[in-house]
Write a structure and sequence with these properties.
The complex is a heterodimer of chains A (about 230) and B (about 120).
Chain A: H1 2-16, H2 18-36, H3 41-50, H4 54-65, H5 70-80, H6 84-95, H7 102-110, H8 114-123, H9 132-157, H10 163-184, H11 188-207, H12 212-233
Chain B: H1 11-36, H2 44-66, H3 77-93, H4 98-115
Helix pairs in contact in B: 3-4
């Protein structure tokens, strides 16, 4: 078990650096936006703890300020989170190698964010299967706490933050995804899937903004999967 | 920012809304754990799910950068594209240095928007 603890520590240390800082930058922006739009601190913190997905939180904030009906807000936030389904499906079989009790996996799923997912998919080949769960928790829990702290800090600093800086911080989230996706995707099918999704996602958005994440991902991902399979065979 | 949450929204309603959004997000996470129990790590379904995950994230990322809603929509497209391009170039030149890449993009966007 001491090795699991070691994996936990290594992952937490790795996460405290750039990954948590960059993730936290996005949440600083979110906290500042919340404060600037009359959203109470407790609600901002609650959303970071329970939703823990920046695109969904930004959508919730913007729509509730615009006075959208709650049902529509919940549906939209739910749809932007569809990415967590395939991400969890892809991660769990690799993580569960030690056959964990189910409740641990269900708790771990709450900590899953793009950052921890990408880092895990990249690192797991070098981590012994028995210690991968500890590694993931160490990394993701650090991310989660950093985001809570950053939400509070952004809220507190909002008044001394020019709107331009706030915009810059909100921009950091998607920019971070852009860099790690282009720089860290190693598998062939992963690269094809990125390209397909990058083209199809925005196109679907022009037709159906609400369903774009889900439809774009399904169409682009399936296309990439079929393409990679065919070219691997022949 | 001109728009503010209306005073008429009670704390109880707001709390319920946030929790409902959290639940809507968790449904996908929980469903993923449930389905993953029936999937082996080298199966075709697993590979397909990975492809769909990558495509969803790529689509969402490019959509936010090209067609943003909310606060980013007031920044000009050329400023966002320029910031992305500079960030990518420095990131790759400096052997995938994330910190420099992100900092470059942030500064480039802020500078580009402030001179417009």
């Amino acid at each position: 078990m001491s090795d699991s603890l070691g994996a936990f520590r290594n992952a937490a240390r790795e996460s405290i650096g750039v990954p948590s800082m960059v993730l936290a930058a996005g949440y600083l922006g979110f906290g500042a936006l919340a404060s600037g739009s009359g959203f109470p601190l407790w609600a901002a913190l609650l959303s970071s703890a329970t939703i823990f997905a920046l695109p969904g939180q930004l959508a919730m904030l913007e729509m509730s300020i615009a006075g959208t009906v709650p049902t529509a807000i919940v549906i939209t936030v739910g749809l932007t989170a569809a990415r967590f389904l395939p991400m969890t499906v892809a991660l769990m079989p690799v993580v569960r190698a030690g056959q964990r009790p189910a409740w641990q996996l269900y708790l771990a799923a709450q900590l899953l964010a793009m950052t921890g997912w990408a880092a895990s998919m990249r690192r797991f080949p070098d981590v012994a299967p028995a210690h991968r769960f500890a590694w993931f928790i160490g990394f993701a829990l650090t991310n989660w706490m950093a985001c809570l702290a950053a939400t509070g800090a952004g809220f507190a600093l909002a008044d001394s933050m020019p709107p331009l800086v706030r915009q810059g911080l909100v921009f950091v989230g998607p920019l971070y995804f852009l860099l790690i996706l282009t720089g860290e995707t190693r598998t062939r099918q992963g690269i094809i899937a990125l390209a397909c999704g990058a083209v199809i996602g925005p196109l679907v958005h022009l037709v159906s903004p609400q369903w774009s994440v889900m439809l774009g991902g399904l169409v682009g991902g399936t296309l990439a999967w079929a393409w990679a399979r065919r070219s691997a065979r022949g | 920012m001109a728009e503010v949450l209306r005073e008429s929204v009670s704390p109880a309603h707001l709390g319920l809304l946030v929790l409902a959004c959290g639940l809507a997000t968790y449904l996908w996470r929980g469903l993923g754990v449930m389905l993953s129990g029936k999937v082996s790590a080298d199966g075709e379904f697993f590979t397909w799910a990975g492809c769909v995950a990558y495509a969803m994230i790529a689509g969402l990322t490019v959509r936010i950068l090209l067609l943003p809603t909310g606060t980013l929509s007031t920044t000009p497209l050329w400023a966002r594209l320029l910031a992305c391009a500079l960030a990518l170039v420095l990131y790759f030149i400096l052997r995938r240095n994330l910190f420099v890449g992100i900092a470059t993009g942030f500064i480039a966007l802020v500078v580009a928007v402030s001179v417009t």
